[in-house]
Design a protein that fits this description.
two-stranded antiparallel sheet, nine-stranded antiparallel β-sheet, mainly beta, single chain
């Protein structure tokens, strides 16, 4: 009778699990998020291998003496941030295998396999990600970007007028040369 109850059920494969691990393939580097390091138990060295037929890339923890192993996360390294690997041979191999010739970055998600202690990234499902340009802190806008419209704030100044930061003008403002104040006693540098 006990066998009739379990009829139609399949055993769940606990050897693999979906993770939040991602690998970003940029033009000159690979970037792994911290979930990748966590799933692999923060290995100091890893080995990468790829399957050109299935377009899969595997990352597996290893030792320093393993052939083709490279430094992944140094012992005691702060792993609050992503891990960047600047090995052009790896980047070129993946980009060539996938036929990616543009400047875009590609983000692939991985599946952790406990039996192999490896994360396998499916490169066929990698998402294309455009590079984002950050606005600089000094308010300068990157080349080619349109300035955002300035809006009035609801807070009036002492006179009762509403405050507008950098109101748009019809004519471009002439840029003033940057003046640097020097501390007394320091010589001026010839520029």
């Amino acid at each position: 009778m006990a066998t009739d109850v379990m009829k139609g059920f399949e055993v769940i494969d606990i050897e693999k699990s979906s993770t939040q691990a991602t690998m970003t393939v940029a033009q000159t580097k690979l970037r792994f998020n911290k979930a990748t390091a966590h799933e692999l138990k923060y290995p100091e060295y890893v080995v990468m291998s790829f399957n050109p037929t299935t377009h899969q890339v595997a990352v597996q923890g290893s030792t320093e003496t393993t052939r083709h192993a490279f430094l992944f996360a140094e012992k005691g390294e702060d792993t609050r941030y992503s891990i960047t690997v600047n090995i052009m041979a790896l980047v070129n191999t993946i980009r060539k295998m996938m036929g990616w010739t543009d400047d875009a970055e590609y983000v692939a998600h991985g599946v952790y396999y406990a039996a192999a202690d490896a994360i396998i990234f499916e490169m066929d499902t990698a998402l294309r990600s455009e590079k984002r340009r950050r606005q600089k802190k000094n308010g300068m806008i990157p080349d080619g970007a349109e300035p955002k419209e300035q809006k009035e704030t609801d807070v009036p100044d002492r006179t009762g007028a509403k405050i507008v930061s950098n109101p748009p003008t019809e004519e471009p403002a002439a840029q003033k040369p940057l003046q640097v104040r020097r501390q007394p006693g320091r010589p001026k540098k010839n520029v």
